Amino acid sequence: MNSINRKQLFIASCLALLVTSLSFGIRAGILGTLGTEFGLTAAELASISATAFWGFPLAVIIGGFLVDVIGMKRLLVMSFLLHIIGIILTIVAKSYTGLFVSTLCIGLANGTVEAACNPLVTSLYTENKTTKLNHFHLWFPGGIFIGSLIVYFTSKAFGNSVGGINLWQLQVGVMIIPTLIYGYLFSKLKFPVTERVAAGVSTGEMYRSLLNPLFLCMIILMFGTAITELFTGQWIDVLLKNVSENALLLLTIETGIMAIGRGFAGPVVHRFSPAGVLLISAIFSAIGLYILGHTTGNTLFVGAIIFGIGVCYFWPTMLGFVAENLPKTGAVGLNLMGGAGMFAVAIYMMFMGGYYDRLVAGKLPVGAEMSTYANAATGSEMATAYNEAKKGAGPEIINVTMTIPIILIVAFILLNVYMRSRNKTTLRKTEALQTA
What we know:
The protein has 19 helices and two strands. By secondary structure, it is an all-alpha fold. Strand 1 and strand 2 form a beta hairpin.
């Protein structure tokens, strides 16, 4: 480790994750604009958004199996190239297909970043995994916060275009700058081997550890934590745009709270343990979603704050729990967790996109053609009816999603009981060995 500059590697990792999160924040902010410009339905928008989420698990799972073979540096070169290609293809997209392909490239790049950087962080900071994973992952909400602010303020300042160029194309182009910087930094730095390789854990032992019942339970729980955090964040502008004039600011507030919270993860994790933090997170998430789905006006900002506190520690603490309690699962274990989470979000997002369209259609007059209402002139009776339908459908989607953290509350109570029992057993065995 003497020749490894872990501070610079950590900074470069944070920049790579910043690009990943900027793609989420900017996409969330321009999703409605893309729908209008390309004439897309909510189901088509959901399909495009979901592409980033299923491209992510595809890359993170494949990368998880390759990282010990080809090394973390080569994976990050791949992520750099995919980010550049995806950003350029998004800027020049002219149709649904163009947006789909470009978003897939960015999703693959994002997954490759996670596949390399999560095991890199745990290898660099073996003594403090959960805290450093939280510090690393603060750049995910941090980047969404920055991205949503970029979209919000540039849209207020410039409208829809700048010098004949669509504003959304310039907003996407911002991501090229940190991409070039992280690509340059990683090209100059030396990388360590993964923690599993350094510890001498064999590949066979790693694969056997993946069948541990606790690991399998954490995979299932990752489905719920990822959906709660990422689906809501990615779709909050669409779901609440007709409820609040500042729906995008709700995302900005939520992610700002998340970034701040992850920065102070050390004392929180130390005080409550990873399992305890996950239980508290589920409780706050459920309360936040309840407020977002049942209120209007300024109370929505209270809901966004509480929800941000709730989902703040979900993703990095789930990974940290596995890294600390199931270390033999190695990089593959971490990446299977991330892949499982994003895969669940992709499936849920595609299902909810269609469900949202059906809810809106059900609130329009019987026999109404939704596309006719969607394209009605602003201020017309049909446009007003369409906006009212969306105003009712958005909170309903949030209320359905709220059932997930409620289930997680029960699951994490059981996890805390199990971990306390396990820790007591381990302590008794240690004391017996010391007195023997």
